[in-house]
Amino acid sequence: MGKTTAKTAKKPLKKTTAKTKASSKTTKKPAYGKKAKATNKSVYPSKTLAKIDPVQIDFCGVELNDRQIKFLINFIIPGQPCFHNAYKSAIEAGYAETVARVDIHGFVHRSEIKQIIRRNEYLLHDMVHNSAMRAVQIKQERAFFDPLDYFDIAEETLYTKQGDPYMKRSLKLKELADMTLEQRQCIDGMDSKGTGNVPVYMMANRGDELNDLIKLDKEYEKAAANKEDDEDESIEVIMERLTVKKTVRQVKDETSRAAGLVRLPKSAVTEL
What we know:
Blueprint: H1 2-27, H2 31-40, H3 66-76, H4 86-93, H5 97-108, H6 111-119, H7 122-143, E1 151-159, E2 165-173, H8 181-184, E3 187-193, E4 198-203, H9 206-262, H10 266-271
Antiparallel strand pairs: 1-2, 3-4
Helix pairs in contact: 3-4, 4-5, 7-9
């Protein structure tokens, strides 16, 4: 009895150890590792898709699967590495290499897909407009920057020959890492000055930036004035058309009235 119990105890131990080894082998299979490498080779991390709101895209009521929607998100929304690149958009959406190189172009040229692309062209226009507004903002920052923001004020206590303390202040250039993005945008480069090769920042040309802003303001005023002139002309044309229609109607009315006066009643004709 003692021997049989020992044998039965050994068998399940061997089976369990074999199972645990098998399970450990399955977890170490390189299948997931290969997939991870494939995603890392993609144009950009797929998690950026989560930042994009697909609701802003008008799909024109066309029925699409998830992969087609991902492709259109990559292809249509500007500011992405895949923008208007069918191959990269297809790879990022999960299509095979052969599909991305050949078949995806046929998908893009479908009439309903062309309609979706045309309908969402406003996204590119909005991006360009927002970039232009951002460029004007940067010009403002480069025109009105404060030079003192680029220095750190260091204070040091010194002593005279008589032993009296006094405070000495000195200016030290800030490191680029300690500056804000707006401050760094006002720097065009670096140089060294003096015999000690003291590093200095080459700042934006304030005069040029101010002149550009003044030119932009004049162009804006000119465009606004032209728009008002166009609106006045269109109103005048409409008023002229209304006047012509009114005069034609008046002539017709007057003609019909005159004809009514000329007409004689049947009784008068018989009497004659």
